[in-house]
Design brief:
heterotrimer; A mainly alpha (275); B mainly alpha (264); C alpha+beta (353); A: MetI-like fold; two-stranded antiparallel sheet; 71% helix; B: 264 residues; mainly alpha; MetI-like fold
Chain lengths: 275, 264, 353
């Protein structure tokens, strides 16, 4: 018996539960039901180009982009510091990703208590220090903060792994050839860690751009992102066809942008580079 | 020396940023007042009450049951799949892996909606079964991804040696391959379990008829105020995971890094 | 006394995790010489090289470069370059950019960089490979890029850390020759680390044999081979028959209870010594009354010679000769007096904690 048959149960599962559901999204996006049954339509897809949805999409991309950039700025030095500690580094890394094991919703909800304008802990401290209070709940700032908070570990991990993988002798070679610490960082460390940076960017940007929980909680429902639009189609207005079309547009944009990111980094093969 | 100091301060600040909400949560799980801003004295009553609240205990039950079932089934299917995929031709392999990555790479909301449309289309009532299937499906790729790299680093001749020594293919897999990839199977299982435990988006779209997990319960509560018992449950869960991870960490030092590296 | 010493390590001690790797080591490297640090793994040869390169700092003692203490000077401020063990080429840069790395850091004029890189490529026979990526190169080519990348900076000293270890035998021999030629051409100092004695003897002007963080012997390849100072060096450099002996008087040695003539002098009467005889210095003749007789145990064809093993009174000799003996044949061991090397017993060294 050939070992490859062991994959059979999975392959069946994969086709039924991965491929077919995605086909369903296409089906709903391109059909409309009436008395004669389902017929092909482009209405749903055309509707996604309405300015209302394009604005939501634009905002989603903008906030996700800002969050991703800030995550990168915060995570890179952090990963560098952790990698340098050859002994305690891995343990320290563990501390920085541990918060991910606290329930995501609860973690995000906790920021509400921290940020509350009147009684929140942060503002209480700010007031005690005679500093201006933060009034950001319900604004894009709170949403971006929530995204950074939730997705920062996704940026730290791949960068740390990429940095840890760099051969130490390359670092010494850069020194040997006259590069000081700063030039070495610029010319060797950063270029060699690019695969990690790229996966970090994908892993933060992707969930950020599609999130609907964070805007719901920290945006107090006042800021509608594309994720919220999709959620509403399914759970409030029950326009499934249009919801499917929105999901489809989102999915295609994500897959394209990920393709671009991966193309810019030839080392990755398939999706394996994400790891 | 100065540089070292700056590094410490930097690490400290990020740590405060990451842990502030979690510590707040844990502290308020001992708060005698229902307010999530004011301290009303120390109490353990939320811990005592948490299992008596039907809403919370039911969702905790479903959370654990689904996480356990989904991760066990996903580990079995995924392990077999990894062993099979590993020996496939390069082209077939890359096609299968690309499809496998889809649920990992795709937005959770799209995956969730795709499931929902699918279940409705085949006439499966949304509830326990649909949620379980969804969880198994998004868990399998993580199991496969935990095991495949190890398989390719194995000495491929050990399997052939086992055959040469008279073991049947099944026996060779059981006696030679499985023991070698065991740490990765465990990693994959734990990864699947924790992902399942924490999932909200996909569960949200695939559940119905009174079946909820903790995440969904919390989400519905956010509109009318979180019960303090939830803080207590989450603290218990967080500490259990922490202890579990520390035990695994102690058992094999490299494991934490791997588990960390896998967790997306 | 200061005749052109370019690098001096002075009483250097270095430990890692409480393990002493270099023990009060003092070494002079002369200008323009090809000096090889030779020894088994863990003998401290690489650490010595890294101290010169600036990648390690001595715990005690100091490193001098042309009369200046450079113990605390970082690598990027030393006019010394290294060819790393596994080349350490930058995978994100092509051949040209790898070689130009050091020059780019120094912000030299672009056209001058181009000129210098071309010259370096010519020196290592890689003209036309500028645009290749590192992964496209064979081990031998990567080796050449690593050398070019180092010498293009015109260092005063080139450090080479087992640079040929990853290459196959034939390529290794070719590169040995090329490295030697390159060193003469450039007229700079090479400090070379290897555990391969043949490599050391072929290329070097000076060989430094190390063991346990201590220099055993320093000398020309001929000296090291012909006059090893102790049994370790004799054993490490080429194959040797090493046995116990007792010095009876100047020029007379007792081995296995027999008296032999030798040429060494200056030992105390009845001093216990190590006796070393090279396999190629032994002649096997018909057994006879006054000689050390034995029986052939094996005889293996090795290409240029036969490797014959002979058992005499409990000691097994290794002999290289050109005649095929049959196992079981009776022979006698014959050595000329000047091929019997007498050396002081190695003091059983206590490990310094």
């Amino acid at each position: 018996m050939n070992r490859k048959w062991l994959a059979t149960p999975y392959l069946i599962w994969m086709v039924i539960f991965i491929v077919v559901p995605l086909v369903m999204v296409f089906y709903y996006a391109f059909t409309v039901k009436d008395v004669n049954g389902a017929r092909f339509t482009l209405d749903h897809v055309m509707k996604t180009f309405d300015s209302k949805y394009m604005v939501a999409l634009g905002k989603s991309f903008l906030y996700a982009l800002i969050s991703t950039v800030i995550c990168l700025i915060l995570a890179y030095p952090l990963a560098l510091i952790l990698v340098k500690r050859s002994k305690g580094g891995a343990a320290m890394l563990f501390i920085f990703i541990l918060p991910m094991w606290m329930n995501f919703l609860l973690r995000t909800y906790a920021w509400l208590s921290l940020l509350e304008t009147n009684n929140g802990l942060i503002n209480t401290i700010l007031r005690a220090l005679h500093l201006p209070v933060l009034d950001i709940i319900g604004t894009p700032k709170a949403i971006i903060l929530g995204m950074i908070y939730n997705f920062l570990p996704f940026m730290v991990l791949p960068i740390y792994n990429a940095l840890a993988k760099i051969d130490k002798s390359l670092m010494e070679a850069a020194y040997d050839l006259g590069a000081n610490d700063f030039k070495r960082l610029l010319k060797v460390t950063i270029p060699l860690s690019m695969p990690g940076v790229m996966s970090g960017i994908t892993m933060v940007f992707m969930p950020a751009v599609t999130s609907f929980v964070i805007p719901n909680l920290l945006g107090s429902g006042k800021v509608n992102l594309i994720g919220n639009m999709i959620e509403q189609q399914f759970l409030m207005t029950y326009d499934w066809g249009f919801g499917a079309a929105l999901s489809l547009v989102l999915m295609i944009i994500i897959l394209i942008s990920m393709g671009v990111i991966q193309r810019s980094d030839e080392d990755m093969e398939g999706g394996a580079g994400l790891w | 020396m100065v540089k070292r100091g700056i590094e410490r301060i930097y690490l400290g600040l990020i740590m405060v940023f990451l842990y502030a909400p979690i510590l707040t949560l844990i502290v308020f799980s001992f708060n005698d007042s229902k307010s999530r801003a004011k301290w009303g004295g120390f109490t353990l009553k939320w811990y005592k009450n948490m299992l008596h609240d039907p809403e919370i205990s039911k969702s905790l039950y479903y959370t654990l049951l689904i996480a356990l079932l989904a991760s066990v089934i996903a580990t079995i299917i995924g392990t077999l799949a990894a062993i099979g995929i590993h020996v496939m031709k390069k082209k077939t392999k890359s096609v299968i892996l690309n499809v496998t990555y889809l649920p990992v790479l795709n937005a959770d909301i799209v995956t969730g909606i795709a499931f929902m449309l699918f279940f409705v289309a085949i006439g499966l009532r949304l509830g326990f079964t649909s949620m379980l299937i969804a969880h198994i499906t998004f868990n399998i790729p993580y199991v496969i991804l935990s095991i495949l790299p190890k398989l390719s680093s194995l000495n491929k001749f050990t399997y052939e040696a086992a055959l040469d020594l008279g073991a049947s293919p099944m026996k060779a897999i059981r006696k030679v391959i499985i023991p070698e990839i065991m740490p990765n199977i465990i990693t994959g299982f734990l990864l699947a379990f924790t992902l399942s435990l924490d999932d909200f988006v996909i569960s949200y779209f695939t559940t119905g008829s009174g079946v909820t997990n903790l995440s969904i319960t919390i989400y519905t509560m956010t509109r009318r105020g979180i019960k303090p018992e939830i803080n207590a449950v989450s603290t218990v869960l967080f500490l259990s995971v922490l202890i579990l991870l520390l035990i695994i960490n102690k058992r094999s030092d490299r494991h934490a890094k791997k588990l960390g590296g896998m967790n997306v | 006394m200061e005749k052109n010493v370019i690098i001096r390590l002075e009483n250097v001690t270095k430990s890692f995790d409480d393990q002493v790797v270099l023990n009060n080591l003092t070494l002079d490297v002369e200008k323009n010489e090809f000096l090889t640090l030779l020894g088994p793994s863990g003998c401290g040869k690489t650490t010595t090289l890294r101290l010169i390169g600036g990648f390690e700092k001595p715990d005690e003692g100091s490193v001098w470069h042309q009369g200046k203490d450079i113990s605390n000077v970082p690598p990027y401020k030393r006019n010394i370059n290294t060819v790393f063990q596994k080349y350490a080429l930058f995978p994100h840069l092509n051949v040209y950019d790898n070689i130009a790395f050091g020059l780019n850091i120094k912000k030299i004029d672009k056209s001058l960089i181009k000129e210098k890189v071309q010259k370096a490529l010519k020196q290592v026979n890689l003209v036309g490979y500028e645009k290749r990526s590192i992964e496209q190169l064979s081990g031998g080519q990567q080796q050449r890029v690593a050398i070019a990348r180092a010498i293009v900076n015109e260092p005063e000293i080139l450090l080479l850390d087992e640079p040929l270890g990853a290459l196959d035998l034939k390529l290794r021999q070719e590169m040995q020759y090329e490295l030697k030629t390159l060193q003469k051409e450039l007229g700079i100092t090479f400090v070379y680390v290897t555990h391969d004695q043949e490599e050391a003897l072929t290329m070097s002007d000076t060989v430094v044999v190390m063991n346990n963080g201590v220099i055993q012997q320093k000398g020309s390849p001929e000296d090291i081979y012909n006059e090893p100072v102790n049994a370790f060096v004799a054993d490490f450099i080429g194959e040797s028959n090493i046995m116990d002996g007792i010095m009876k008087q100047d020029g007379v040695i007792e081995i296995f209870g027999r008296i032999y003539e030798c040429v060494d002098k200056g030992y105390a009467i009845n001093e216990k010594v190590d006796v070393v005889v090279r396999p190629e210095d032994i002649k096997l003749l018909e057994p006879s009354e006054n000689k050390l007789n034995g029986q052939v145990t094996s005889c293996i064809f090795k290409g240029v010679h036969y490797e014959t093993c002979v058992m005499t009174e409990g000691f097994e000799w290794v002999i290289h000769n050109t005649k095929n003996f049959k196992p079981g044949e009776h022979v006698s061991i014959n050595v000329d007096p000047f091929d019997i090397h007498i050396m002081k017993k190695m003091v059983e060294e206590k490990v310094h904690e």
